[in-house]
Amino acid sequence: MAGKVTLEDLIGRFNGLDIKIRIGVFIAILLVVLAVDYFAVLQFELGSLSTTNDQIKKSNDEIAKLQADQARLGQIKNTLKKVKEDFSKIQSKVRPLQDLPVILEDLTKMALAAHLTVDQITPSREGQEDFATVGGVKYFALPVVVMAHCGYHNFGQFLNNVENSNVMFLLKDLRMEGSEKQNSAVAVTATLKVIVADKPLEAGK
Prior knowledge:
The chain is an alpha+beta fold. It is 54% helix and 25% strand. It is built from 4 helices and 6 strands. The chain has helices at residues 7-15, 19-93, 100-113, 152-163, and strands at residues 95-96, 117-123, 129-134, 137-150, 169-178, 186-197. Strands 1, 2, 3, 4, 5 and 6 form a 6-stranded mixed sheet that branches. Strand 3 (129-134) and strand 4 form a beta hairpin.
């Protein structure tokens, strides 16, 4: 067909070119092939690098989450430890019900140490309340009525003495009658809810 150029024609024309021109064409083709290969490899490496960065970010996020979880776990352990310690302290202050006479004696000693003139310190069975049951042990809030004459500061010292002793109590009622002067004695009537447990006496009690 007229005007049709075949591969043989192109090769013939190429072979007819000067040797320098043919070498230049070969070099140009080689450079184009190398450039195509280079950019293909570069694109692959950039894609791999992007994937690696995503993996590193994901790993860093997972490490940060793990560290945060470990920190929270440590806080929970510390909280549980403190709760156990506080519970042990409370347990050590809860005396057995059978120890009531000794508790009354201790309260009297603490009242005298705070310079109270004690009229009476007596338990009241009528107001006894079931406080709780833990591990099969029943705990009671046993009212102990304290009647005395003292100054305001002295009664505060008495309550502080009881607070720092091995007697667990709640202050239920408090009445003070008499002079409001700081150094004057007033008539005090207070009800302490002493927490006791229906449990065996400890060894040595």
